[in-house]
Fold each of these.
Amino acid sequence: MEQQLDELVEFLASPRPDVRQLAATYIVDFSKPSSDSFKLLLERVDKLVKPLLVICHETPVVANKAMNTLINISTDLAVCRRFANEDMLAMIVRMITSSECYIADPACMLLSNLTKLDEVCRELSLLQVSEAPRICNSSMALDQLTDVFVNGMEKKYNKNATYSFLASVFADITNHSFGRRYFLERTSYDGKLPITKIMVFNEYPEIIRRGGVDSTMKNVCFEKDKHREILDPKETNMLPYILLPLCGPEEFDMEDMDAMPEEIQFLGDDKKREADPKLRATLLEAINLLCTTFYGRNVMRSKNVYYVLREAHKVETDETCIDLNERAVQLIKGDESANIEEEEEKAV
C-alpha cells in the first residue's frame, strides 16, 4: 500500500493533466479518516497540499475529488498548520469568492476545518486578497467572506454555492479577541457592523448557518467593554436576535410585554422555539455573558428578559439549558450592591 501511495502522490504533481486527474480520483479513497491508509497519507502531506490545491482548478469532477481529499486530511490539526500562510489561504478565499467556482461550498468546508487552528484564524484575520467588486469594495478577506455569506445565500451569487459553512468559520474566528473585534467594529468600506449582517440568520432553516451565527453572537459577548454597543438598539441591537429563538407562542401580560424589545412582541400562535438544545444553550450562554456586567443585567431587567426565560423554562427538557436558564435568572433577579456599577466600569 505504501508504494502505491507514493506513486499516487508523485503523480499529483505530474505535468500531464490526465495523470494528475487520475491520481486525484484514486487518492481520495485513501484519505478517509476512518481508513487504515489515513495515517500513511498524512505522513506524505508535504507533497499533497499544494498539488491538490492546483488540481482544484481543473475539471469539476476531478476538482471535487481533490477538494474532498483536502477536507478529509484537514481534520488533522497538524495538516491545518500547512495552510497557515498567506498564499494557501488566499487560494482558498479566491475559490470561495469566485462566482463561477463549482467547488465554492466544499472550499467553505475546508476553511471551516482549518479555522479550528489558532494560527489559521490569525492569518485569515489579516489576509488581504484581490478585490471582488461583485461582493464588496474591500480587499480584506474577512469582509469578502462576510458579504458573500450574506448576499450569496440560496445560490444568489454562485449557482453552485450557499456559503452556509462560512458560519462555522465566523464562530471559530470569534473564539479570539481579534475576531470578535472585527465583527463589532464598523468596516471602512460600508460603515456597517459585520455582526449585524449575519445575526439576521439566527432563525434560518439550515442548522449549519444558524448554528454558526448563534455561536458567533455568543462569542462576541465575551467583549465586556462592548456590551453597551451590543445591547444598544441604535447600534448592534443584538438582544432581540438572542431572545427570538428562545420565544414560543405564549402570550404575555400587556404590561410585561410593553417593556420587551419590539421584535419579540405579538409573535403569534405559530411561533416555534429553537429545536436544537445545543443552540438553545448557546443563546442562553450569550445571555449569561451579557449578565456579567452591571449594564447588561440592567438592560435584561428593563427589557423584561426574565419573563422570556420563565416561559422557556416551563417547557425546557434539556438539563444544560435548564441550568443556564436558572443561572441567568439568578443574575437578573439578584440584588446589586450600591457601588457595583462603578467597580465593574473600572474593571472594563
Amino acid sequence: AGIEMPVNLKFCWEGMEESGSEGLDAIIEAEADKWFKGTDVVCISDNYWLGTKKPCLTHGLRGVSYFHLQVEGPGADLHSGVFGGTVHEPMVDLVHLLAKLVDNSGRIQVPGIYDQVMPVSDAEERTYEGLEFSHTALASDLKRDVIIHAEERDTLKHRWRFPTLSIHGVEGAFYAPGDKTVIPARVRGKFSLRTVPNMEPEKVAQLVKRYLQDEFAKLGSKNKMTVIETHAGRWWYSSPNHPNFVAGSRATEKVYGVKPDLTREGGSIPVTLTFEENLGVNVLLLPMGAADDGAHSINEKIDKRNYIQGIKLLGAYLHEVAATDMTA
C-alpha cells in the first residue's frame, strides 16, 4: 500500500496453546526488560465475536481452578456379586460428593464461594444492552434448548462474570461399551471452577477442600478421600475505557461502520495476565473470528469476510494506536 508502519512492532509467536503453552510464561517474564522492553501496549487476537455479524472488544476473562477428587477403598477392584452391600464403595462416595458441588440450576453449593464475587454495578448492567446475542441463536448452536436462564443478560452474566462449576469426568471407573459388574477400588472425579473478580484462587481452594471434607465426614465412610488442586489460573479484567481499547474501538468503527460490543469471555487465556503483570501495560483482546467458527472443533473455520476485514482491522488498529495518547 506504500504506507509506512505507524508503530514499532514486537511479535510473540507461540504454537503450543493446545498442549499447555509450556515455557511461555517463563520466557515472557525473562524477556520483560529485554526483548519486550519499551512495549507500550499489547494486542491479542485469540477469541471470538459474541455473534456472527457484529464485532467486539473483549475486556475480561474468567480464571479456572481445576480439582481432582479421589476416593480410595479396598486394595483391589471387587466383584459386586460377592462384595456389593458389604463394603463402602468408592464410586458411591464419589457420586454423592460430586452431586453436592452444584445444583441443576448451575448454582455452586460450596459455602462462601460467592462472597468474593464483585457486585454487578449499574454501569455494568448497561453494558448488556444492545449486544448481538439471543437465546434463539444459542439454542440453535446447542442443537437443543437446554438453556438454564430465562433472560439473555442472565445467561451472559453466568458465562462472563459469575463463577461456575462443571463436572468433567471420572477416572478409574468402567466406561467402555457393554456390562461389567466390577466395584472400582479407586476413583477420581474431575471438576473445575471458573473464577471471576475478585476471587482469589487460594481462598477458592480452601473453601472447596473444607466443604468436601465436611460432606465426606457426613457419609460415615471408611474409605479415604483426597482433594487435589491441579491448576489455578487467575481471572483477568481491564477497563474498556483505557486508550488501548479506545484505539481498538475507533479502528473497528472505521472498518465495520459500527461501534463494537464490549464483551467478556467465559474461558481463559492465561498469557493475557502474564503480559499485563510482567510488562506493566494494558492488554487488548481484539477478535477477528465469529461465534460460529467452531473453536477447537474438527471443522474449525474462519469466514472470508472475517479474514479480509480482520486484516483491515489490525492495520487500522496500528494507526489508531499511533494517533492515541496511551498515557491519557
Amino acid sequence: MVNAYDGTRESTSGFIITLHPLVILNITDHFTRLRLQSGDASNAKGPLTIFGAVIGTQSGREIEVFNSFELPYKYVDGRFVIDNAYFVSKQEQFRQVFPNYDLLGWYSVGSHPTDSDIHVHTQFLEHNDSPLFLQLNPDINPAIAKDLPLSIYESVLELGGSAEAAGGTSTAATAAAAASASSLKFAKSKYKIETGEAERIALDHIARSTNADSDRGSSMVANLTGQKNAIKMLHARVQILKAYVRDVDNGTLAPDHELLRQIASVCQRLPTVNSQDFRHEFISDYNDILLNTYLAAITKGAHAVNELVDKINIATADRKSGKRGVASMGSSIYV
C-alpha cells in the first residue's frame, strides 16, 4: 500500500466541521501525561502514541465535535489494536450523560497519516461509516507555527484499477483485481474553532494559571495556593505538638504544664465538631451563604435586564422620532 496521505489530497465532501477547544485540551493533556510517564523512548506497547474517540453531533453536513475520551490499545504483530470492549463500555457511559452525542471519529498524534493509521481507522468503521481522524502534531515549533498543530482528515476509498486499464476487457478476473487494488486514503478537511461561554471562562483560567507567579495570575490559583500553604503549616505544627507529647510521655523531655494544658484545651475542642448543635449551626450558616449568593446572582441578572430594557427603549424612541420627522417633512412638501 502507498502512503495514506500525499500532502495534496483535499476533501470534497462539503462537510462543515466545527471543533471545540475542550477536544484540543483533552488530546494535548493525554499526550503530555503519556510522554512524562513513559519518556520519549518506545516501550513494550510499541512506539509512543495515543488513541482516543471524539464525540459530538451531526446534522446533515454540519459536524460539531464537543468532547473526547481516551482509549487503551495493544501492540500486536506491529499493529495497534484498540480495546473494543472498553470502547463500547465507555461510549455507553457517555450516552447516559450526553444522549445527543454520537461517535464522530478518533484521534492520535503524528506529522501525517500513515499505513498504521489506516489500520486503526478501519477498526472504527464498525461503529461509524465515515469516521473523522484528528491528528495532533507535537513536533511543530509553536514559535514559528501559524496555525494550530491539529489536522482533521476524512477517509476516501481510492480505486487502484479498472477494466479499461486492463486492456479494455471486462472480466471477473479484472474486476477482482481492481477491487483488491482499491485502498482507503485520507483527505484533509477544513475546520473552524467555536467556543462557548463556559469554555471561554475555562480557557481564560487555564491561560492565567500557567502564569500564576506573575501579577496576571489567576485569583483562584492564588487563593488555593494560600490555602495549601496554610494547611501545610497547620500539619507541621500538629506534628511538632505530637512529637512533644510523645517525648514527654517517654520521659525524654521535662513536662511543661502550661503547654500541656493548652494542648489539652485544643484536643477537648475537637469533639464539638461532630456534635448535633455544631452540625445544625453549620448547615444554617451554609444555607445563609448560598442564599446570599443566589440573591446576588438574581440582582446581577435583574440589573442586566434593566440595562437591556433601557437600550431597547432608547432605540425604539429614536426610531419613532425618525419616522415622525420624515412624516412631517412629507406633509410640509405636500402642502
